[in-house]
Structures are given as C-alpha cells and as structure tokens.
Amino acid sequence: MERTKLKTVYEPDKFIKMGFFTSWKAMASNLWSSRELIWRLFLRDFNAKYRQSLLGVSWAILNPLITVAIFIFLRKSGIFRIEATALPYPLFALIGISLYGIFATGLSGCANSISGAGSMVVKINFPKISLVIASMGQSIVDFLVRFLVIIALLIIYGIMPKFSIIFLLFAIIPIILFTLAIGLMIALLAGVFRDILHLVPFLTTLFLFLVPALYPAPQSGGLAALNRWNPLSHLIIGSRRIIIGANPFNSDGFILAIILSLLIFLISWRVFFLSETKIAERV
Amino acid sequence: MINDTNIKIDGVSKKYCLSLRQTMAYGIRDVLKNAAGLPSASQMLRKGEFWALDNVYFEVKKGETIGIIGANGSGKTTLLKLLNGIFMPDKGRIEIEGRVGALIELGAGFHPLLTGRENIYVNGAIYGMSKKEIDKQFDAIVNFAEIGDFIDAPVKHYSSGMYVRLGFAVAVHCEPDILLIDEVLAVGDENFQNKCFNKIGELRKKGVTTIFVSHNMHHISAITEHVVLLAKGTSRYFNNTPEAIREYSKTFNQKESTDIEKICSGDKEISFFDVEISKRKLSPGDSFPVIMNYTALEDLPDVEVFASIWKQGETRLYYRASNKAYGRKIDLQKGTHKLKIEINDIPVSGSFARIVIDIYTKNTEKKIFWWRIPVEFDTTPYSTGDNFLKTSFETIP
After folding, report:
1. Which pLDDT score is estimated for A1?
2. Residue A3, pLDDT score
3. Min CA distance, B45 vs chain A (Å)?
4. What are the CA-CA distances from residue B164 to residues B105, B106, B368 (Å)?
5. Is there a contact between B339 and B387 (Cβ–Cβ < 8 Å)?
6. Running DSSP on this structure, what letter comes out for residue B185?
7. Quick one: pLDDT at residue B63?
8. Interface A:B, Cβ pairs < 8 A
9. FRET label pair with A101: which of A78, B63, B245, B356, CA 20 to 30 Å apart?
10. Contact B45/A at CB under 8 A
11. What is the DSSP letter of B348?
C-alpha cells in the first residue's frame, strides 16, 4: 500500500477548491476504495438479519408470495378490479412486486442506514456512502432469489423463458440507481430529521399503487399520466417486457428513464458527498 | 527537503451554533451552495454562531506524543474530530501525513448478533483495513483482546470488558501512523488500562505519532512530551508537560479572589493590627510561618488557635487543627505582642489553597479573629495528585 505517501488535507470548501473534475475523481476514488467496506457492511446486515429467524433466507421468497396471494384474493373477491393481463395474474403480480421490491426494500434500508448506524457515524471517519449502498444489498439479494422463483413459475405455467431473460439482471441497474438517488437523500435527511423514518413506509406504499406493478399500465386517465412521468413505471414496464422476451427499447420512456435515473443518481451522489461532513456535525 | 512534520494545524477554526433550528437552516444553505459549486463563506460568523475553536496552531513531528488538555467545553473533542476528518474546519487548514487510527469510541459498529470473528472483519473494514490486512493481524487481535473461545460467540454475550478490549484491539491493529486517543481508556479495569498504555508505548516506539486527549493529568504526564492547552477555543502550546498541567490547574482557580481577608470580631479585648507572611507561593514540602502582631486590652488565657488548609476554594478541608492537638497552651497577655504560627512540611501539590487562621477565647466560647490567606502550591515535575510526599529511593544490593 502507498501508506507513506498518503497525505490528507482538511480545509473549508475543500472539494470546491479542487475544481469540478478533480472533485469528481475524488468521489470516484472514495467510492472505489470503499468497495471492501460496502461488502463487509452488507454481509454484516445480511448475516444479522437471518441469524435470529427460523425461516432465514426463505423470507425473501415468502414475502412477495404473501403479497401476491393477498392481491390474488383481492382481485378474485372483486375488491380490486384489475384488468386481464398478458401473463397469468399470479406470475404477472410476482414479477411486478419483485421489481418494485428493489425500490421499496432498498428505500427503507437506505432510510435507516445512517440514522441506525449510531455513534460510529460521528466517531469514526469512513465513507458514509458505504452504509447507504450496503443497505441496498438486501433488496438485490431478495430480487435474485425471486428471479429464480419467477423462472420456475414461468416453466410451471408452460412459458419457456428465453435466454434474453438474463438481461433482466442488467435492467435492474437503473432501478437500483433510481432507488439510490432517492435513498441517498433520504438517508441524509433521516440522519438529521428522524421524522423521515416515519414517512418512508407511506411513500413506498403510495408508490406501490402509483406504478404498474400489480396492475397492467393503464392507457388513459390520471394514473396513465402519472405513470408517463414516473421513471420507475417505465423501468418496471421495460423490465417486464424483457421477461416475456419482448424488446424493452421500443418505448422511448424506458430509455429516457434509464438516462434520468443515472442523472439523478449522479446529482444525489454529489450532494451526499459534499454534505457528508456537514451532517456529521448535526446528527 | 527533509520535513518530518506529521500533522500541521494551521489557524484552524470551527464554529458552532447553539440553536438547532438555525444550525439546520445554515447547514442546508451551505450544502446547496456547495452543490452549486459556490464556496460557503464559512470564515464569517452568522447570527447565533460562535467559534468553538478559534485560530488553533500547532505542529506535531513524526513519533511525538502530544497531549490535549482543557476544561469541559474547551474544544478538545471538536479538535480531535477535525483531526479525524469527521467534519471540516471553517477556517484554516489541517495537513496529515499517514493513516489515522482513532481510539475514540471502542466497538462502535459492532453488531450484537454477530460473532467476535465477524465483527473484527466489519470493524477492521470501517477502520480502512483490507481483508488481507485483517487476516494477517487476526491472531494478534484475538490475543490482545484475551477473548479466547468467545471469538465465535455473538458479541451480545460478551462482558463489557471483553467488548472494549476487542474494540481497542481492532483499532490499534490497523497499523496507524497517527493514533488519536480520546478518554477511551477510562473504561475497562486497571489491568486493561495498563495493557493499553503498554500497547500505545509500543506503537510510539515504532514511530507512531500520538495525540492524546484526557482529563487525567496522571496519564497526560506519563505519556506526553508536549501539550496543547485549550481554553474557550483558543490554544496554547507547551513544550513542557508539567508547565502545561500547572497552567491547566490554574484555569480552574482563576475566578477566585486572591485577596487576603481578615475579620476581627474581638470587640475591644483585642485587635490584630499586622500580620506578616513571607510568601504566597509555596512548593510542596515548604513551611508556612505566620507572625501576628496584636494589642490586647486584657489578658486572654488559654485561647484556642486553629490553623487550617482548604483546597479548591472552600469546598474541601485539607487540614485543620488547633494548638490543643499539639498539647500547647497559649495565653495572650495584655499589651502589644507577637504570636507565631508555623505549619511545617505542607505536602500539598499543584493547586490553589487557602490557609485560614482562627482564634477563639477559652473553651471556644467566642471567635475573636478570622483570617484567610490564598496561597498557591506549585507542581513538582514528574508528579501528579493532591500531595507530594517525601519518598526515598534506595537500591539495596
């Protein structure tokens, strides 16, 4: 390691004085050097989560299955009127809820990541972004487990998955970036205002109904307009198209949503990086 | 160019704001400004802000041990957090060469459900160690922490001693070039403290620069070479540790009056018109003679004269005894005479004290004189504590 050459300077507005490009480089190297820490923190949360539970990792499958079962019941009983879907409804709903789960589980993980880390945030100097990114890990693992269940279910329903389904693993990257973009801001705010923690469950429930996860995308009406402006909706619709073997890029929305996710992630990352030390003063 | 300066703190200031609401508002404004690429003009004080640290300068050379002392609220923790990069200074510049290890909170980031082994890897990563480095140090960490078979038990089953030992062990084994230590050694038993000090000594020998914050002057004088004394955010650098400790103890006593007070309530029987003392500044072990000139209008047989020493203002009685304790009978005769009282070999060290003389008539019926003299007792180098006793050292072959 280049230990002896390591020189650190702390001064006000350090990253502004550095210049725009140098400061982005500093952000990138800060993130790159935290990869080991991110992995460790993820392992810590992952191991701790299942250590005191009987069913362990099976919860990753049980959780969406229960939600889907509830919606099947609601649909059958007529409480919710959901239009006919191209895929069998249980499969359709499972795919939707699995994709949406990346956002929902990820966001609540991010919200707790800094406020729940306790005194280490104000006592130890380490890249705080690693706490937020590591907290996303859970939602990714959940999705990977559900991905296998989806494939199994496709086969059970007699729909042979095409090889292109593997691209789904790339299609979730913009969903992760979108979640991180909002998650980083929420993590910062929740570090200072604990109120945010109470709001996040409402936010994820509201979004569940705003995005076409459990129902097909409506073609007209207020919800359709909302969906048109919601990048998450386009990302979920696009990803679902990949599963059924269709080309997701035939809608402009999907491409724009990917670009938008990347863009807001970069902005959010920068704001987080610049305010990290200011938050430490106020937690 | 040879430059063996390890840490350079150049005119560093840090401001705080007491009102939480204002802090938030300022914080959001600063973040937005920075995000837009504008400087935050942090060198200016805004409404409600004050300097918690004001223009602090000092340098630490490689391998030196610096103590940081100061009363509560003098900015010690703020300074340490700045050095650790937890937050940025609002003015000035800090330059640090090498990896910083911080013994600020031991075991922060431990997860209670995970085993000691798992927590070592997590905690090590938080301190910036790679898996390879942790693997290399793993046995040393477990040995130092003395947790034995508990290494594979969840840390929630650890005793609090094991918990801090493991926290300390991980933090010191990250091979820092600079070690920041905050009051953490106050936890743990005597045995653990000694072990920690030995480990710190070992690291110092290897050339690790150490910055040590403590309220315990015994620890400060035991391990530091130079001292930075903080008072209300300003700093003073002392090359000599005992001198710094002396200054530090003064800050507690500064507000006290140094005036000699005298109350003579003897009505008309007696008046003390003059009292002679030779000095007001004493070294431990000095004697303190007082000569009192009085005029008595009548004989006052068998009076009782008390001499006492109060430390820390008048809150703590250090010594009080009258002539009767020494089997001396005192009769004050009519006319103008002198009375000499001498306290011998006073072992008080490093503090302000008040010597009080009071005189009562026979059978302590009536107080006729009361006199208070503030004095200052010097610190002896290489010693701490309230007393400095005569101790002999002999090697016996």
Report:
1. 39
2. 44
3. 14
4. 9, 6, 59
5. no
6. G
7. 86
8. 148
9. A78
10. no
11. B
* Closest residue by Cα to residue A226 from A204, A203, A210, A240: A210
User: Which residues 131-170 in chain A show a CB within 8 A of chain B?
Assistant: none
The residues facing B261 across adjacent strands are B372
* Antiparallel, parallel or unpaired: β B335-343 and B351-360: unpaired
Contact B76, B213 (CB under 8 A): yes
* Dihedral sign for Cα atoms in the order A60, A64, A70, A76: negative
How far apart CA B231 and CA B69 sit, in angstroms, is 9
Query: Residue B308 and residue B316: Cα distance in Å, rounded?
Result: 11
> Closest Cα of chain A to B146: distance in Å?
23
The pTM for the full model equals: 0.79
Q: Does A44 touch chain B (CB under 8 A)?
A: yes
CA pair distance A213, A207, nearest whole angstrom: 10
| DSSP for A165-191, written as a single string | GGGHHHHHHHHHHHHHHHHHHHHHHHH
CA angle (B88 as vertex; B235, B96 as ends), nearest 5: 70
For A189-204, what is the mean pLDDT? Answer: 87
A278: nearest CB among B31, B119, B154: B31
What is d(CA A200, CA A40) in angstroms, rounded to the nearest whole number? Answer: 26
Separation CA B44–CA A158 (nearest Å): 70
Complex prediction ipTM: 0.82
Beta-carbon separation of B85 and A275 below 8 A: no
Chain B residues within 8 A of A191 when measuring between CB atoms: none
The first and second tokens of residue B105, run together, are 């909170």
